[in-house]
Amino acid sequence: MDRRTISVFGSSAPQPGSAAFAEARLVGKLLAEAGFAVATGGYSGTMTAVSQGACEADGHVIGVTCNQIERFRPLGPNQWVKEEIRYQTLRERLLHLVTQSNGMIVLPGGIGTLSEMTLAWSFLQVGEVAPQPLVLLGPLWHQTIQAFYSPEYVREKDMGLLLFADDPETAVSHIVNYYHA
């Protein structure tokens, strides 16, 4: 497949009908409408929402799953996944999502989402992955990065690797502008 793939990270907790689910679904829809494939962790919550939105816009959905998670939480990929890529471990799954993308959007989430965001940021900083947009969506990330940032530890140019968005439209426009500017 020659289209660019955007990894979307987020929480497994949001349920259909919630604002977080609707926001994630719109991200998936807008990415698909812009011609991008989406890759998520493939399971529930915002992963389902992004997948559903992309499918409803005739997009390609990749679910990156792993046996280790399914031993912890026994459920298969969500119904919207068109292509499943399965690994044995969470580590392999995470590395795939961060290293096999052409951009990343980080939705609000918990510890797993934080680890995905920081690994992506670190890999961009040191050149482990090719330059690409890393978009943080929502006020949670503004607060998190503001609390974390200290100029004695984080260089201003590394802060510049992060793109912030307050809504799905802005998040996706960061991706689109990166590739079509």
Description:
With 181 residues, this protein is an alpha/beta fold. It has one domain (5-180): 3-Layer(aba) Sandwich (Rossmann fold). The chain has 8 helices and 7 strands, in the order βαβαβαβαβαβααβα. It has helices spanning 19-33, 46-56, 67-72, 90-99, 111-126, 139-148, 156-159, 168-180, and strands spanning 5-9, 37-40, 61-66, 83-87, 104-106, 134-137, 162-165. A 7-stranded parallel sheet has the order 4-3-2-1-5-6-7, sandwiched between helices. Helix 1 (19-33) packs parallel to helix 2 and helix 1 (19-33) runs parallel beside helix 8 (168-180). The longest helix is centred in the middle third of the chain and has 16 residues, at 111-126.
- Helix amount, in percent? 40-55%
CATH class, please?
Alpha Beta
Instruction: Describe the sheet with the most strands.
Output: 7 strands, parallel
> How large is the count of helical segments?
8
Structural class of the helices, strands and pairings?
alpha/beta
For the terminal residues, how far apart are their CA atoms?
23 Å
- How many domains? 1
Encode the helix/strand succession as letters: EHEHEHEHEHEHHEH
On the 0-100 scale, what is the average pLDDT? 96
Shape descriptor reads: globular
Tell me briefly what this model is.
The protein is α/β, with parallel strands linked by helices.
